[in-house]
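Q: Start with the shorter request: fold the first protein.
A: Done. Sequence, then structure:
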Amino acid sequence: MPHLLHIDTSIRSGESVTRQLTAEFVTQWRQNHPDAGYTYRDLGAEPIPHITHEVREWLFDPTGDLHGVTPEEQALTEALHAEVREATTIVLGVPMYNYTIPSSVKSWIDRLVTPAHMLPPGAESGALSGKNVIVVTARGGSYAPGTPREGWDYQEPYLKAVLGAIGLADNLKFVHAELTFAAIVPAMAQLKPLGEKSLADARETLRKLAL
């Protein structure tokens, strides 16, 4: 049974580009899969606590010792694991903050990176493999080849590496909406047409991926 896990992470609300794009994708995907399951988690509105030493020890202890982890921490982490395992498609809305991901996304990832999920050396698949993962980003500027900030993107390379380490890169797609600041920053006004095109291209790509 297809099941969609929809995760938003922007600290902004209605004006968030990633929220708008993931919502449009979800609407189209659910129309195309009317009998599918759906789970939503908003890490921007309800961030996951950063892991503690105790949680880290528990996550990596094969004996199952709780190491002082509270029942609430255990229940939260197990719920996150269950959501990802159940999903056949995951769409993540990830704005770029200071050239990388929001800390709320890092907190989510830190609870997923466990020995049970990590690919063993030389292995091509693991417990989380085979899912469609779509990362929707919004960036105030552009980091494309030839731009002044080429090489400043610490968002996509990190996500490729860490999601790949836990088997979530088999069918991993990135959809970038760049130059979003051109619509609101006067000094970038001349780049507004490029920003509008990037947003339109992102919408079209997501429409195709929702099939």
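Q: Next, the second protein, separately.
A: Sequence, then structure:
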Amino acid sequence: MIRVIGIDPGLRNLGWGVIDVSGSRIAHVANGICHSEGDDLGARLLSLHGQLTRVLTAWRPQAAAVEQTFVNKDGAGTLKLGQARGIAMLVPAQFGLTVGEYAPNKVKKTVVGVGHADKGQVAHMVKMQMPGIEIAGPDAADALAIAICHAHHGGASTLAQAVVRASA
């Protein structure tokens, strides 16, 4: 079994979701949203860093995945999102984890079956794959979808197989 954290980067709300993966089986562990605090960009990034560090300390994942940023017409907005994404990649790296990166369309196609699904469809399919879970919000649902995508595309299963071989 391997524990995977998926992270949906955002400057205001950074979603996270933790799952356990054993072969083709996945199980929900926890999910939530880190809300940035502070008046300036530096304080907000520091706030996200501290909160995400506490999440990784509490749940101790063995693998991590983050959604890639797509560039849109708002260059300043894309740059700020990229800075939050830097925090989302830095914290797992501080815990010694390699971070998988997935395009939004790949995550949606993996979880929903189509690459242009909306947030409601993503949340619905996450709940279908892990019945009975309470999702903290759309950003947490997206983070769980990122973790599921990582589990299905070799990031988690390859690591789990390596751990088994090393233990033998």
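Q: Describe the second briefly.
A: The chain has six helices and five strands. The longest strand covers residues 25-35.
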